[in-house]
Write a structure and sequence with these properties.
Elements (H helix, E strand, L loop, with lengths): L3 E5 L6 H12 L2 E4 H14 L7 H7 L5 E5 L5 E5 L2 E2 L7 H11 L2 H17 L2 E5 L2 H5 L5 E6 L2 H14 L6 H17 L12 E4 L5 H15 L1
Parallel strand pairs: 1-6, 1-7, 2-6, 7-8
Antiparallel strand pairs: 3-4, 4-5
Length: 222
Amino acid sequence: MSIAIAIDGPAGAGKSTIARLAAKELGFIYVDTGALYRAIGLAASRREFTSDSTSDIIAMLSDIKVELAFNDKSEQIVLLDGEDVSGLIRTPEISMMASAVSAIPEVRAFLLDLQRDMSHTNNVIMDGRDIGTVVLPDAKLKIFLSASPECRARRRYDELIEKGMDVKYEDILSDVIARDYADSHRDIAPLKPADDAVMVDTSGEDLETSVNKLLKIMREHI
């Protein structure tokens, strides 16, 4: 029987990086659900839809194909209609659009079966906003990973600067706070810890410390 580990938490908490490294260490498949929503957000942005274009976004779903795949380096990539968009979906603009589309019930239903099917056939570590509460409520282990808004904004700022992007820390912090509010106040599957989630705060910790902390918790539960 396959084992599922759910990691939820706010944007910029390090879920994707930590989950990916932990999955590699444990020999699990890593599933970045946030990337799926970002891909839909990118598709909407390319069509010049706004966060209020709900009906257009819903209609668009029948015309697009979103997939998780692996490249020749065994790295997970996100495909939008066959195009690798992994490097295009991490901007603040797409982050906000991803938050908007994720609040649409039809979008969540569009991706739900894909996410659950992966957990039924593989040992997975899946991260997102509602994995432990909605997508995988029966996961073997549920973790809610967080860090202060300032810490998360600094991490995202450093990441984007390293990629050569012209951004300001204050703008990133504002986006993080706005994203937190949008994710936690949406009507459909709001961001919140599962009742039985293990709470983990990584504020002020480096990546190695955070990964080792989560690996310890995972090994204790599986």
